[in-house]
Design brief:
Layout: H1 13-26, H2 39-46, H3 50-62, E1 66-69, E2 73-76, H4 87-93, H5 99-124, H6 127-143, H7 147-163, H8 168-187, H9 199-211, H10 214-240, H11 254-257
Antiparallel strand pairs: 1-2
Length: 259
Amino acid sequence: MREPAPLLRGRSLVDRAVQRIGQDIVSRHYPPGVSLPNETEWCEQLDISRSVLREALRVLVSKNLITIRARLGGRVRDQSEWNLLDPDILLWRSHGEDQHVFASELFELRRTIEPAAAGIAARRIQPAQLDELRRAYNEMEAAGEDTGRFFEPDNRFHKIILGAVGNSLFHALAQTIVVALDITLRMSLDAPKGQQQSLPFHKTVLQAMERGDAAAASEAMLRLVDASERDVAEARAAITKKPKSAAAPKRAPLRKAAR
């Protein structure tokens, strides 16, 4: 079984249990239709209490990943029933096996939403938000090829535009786009040509925002997303050429991981 993403420090035991079980479900360790372990087995495997486990399972039920019935226990639901736009599920899928298909789906989602958002934001962006956008761009430029320094302002650049739309319904959808954005940006960090190649695309978006040109902002964002997809494809091709690393160590129980 593929190892899940590292458990994040600072999360509660319930959150950690949700992450561990959810990742195992999405990675097909527990395929759709299969019966899940009973409470005793779960608690022993994860070294958690029944109350923590039950709360974690309730969260997974709310994401449509599992069903729980009295005396029958839990079962994994078919993927067609999962809440695939749930930010947690997106993150879990990012650690799955078929990264090519998943990346393609993420970019189709971004290509549908972000250009439209940029067009609306160009008409609505406030002076303070525009200043933040300029600062994010300047920080990307100053970062050079330091991917650690480049990633945060790049991520922030897109978030500022999504936030400038100013639509409460869009805001709920934007949370999913932000996760998709975060995943795809991380996928592109190993692009052989580096990060600075994306700066002209970002600058064109910024200039359209400064002019309040909705059509130009939308077109510029589409080109930026397309360029990002090319970066991810090149990064993945470069990774496949690297020698495989040693197998990951066995996972620790949640209580030990929390220390």
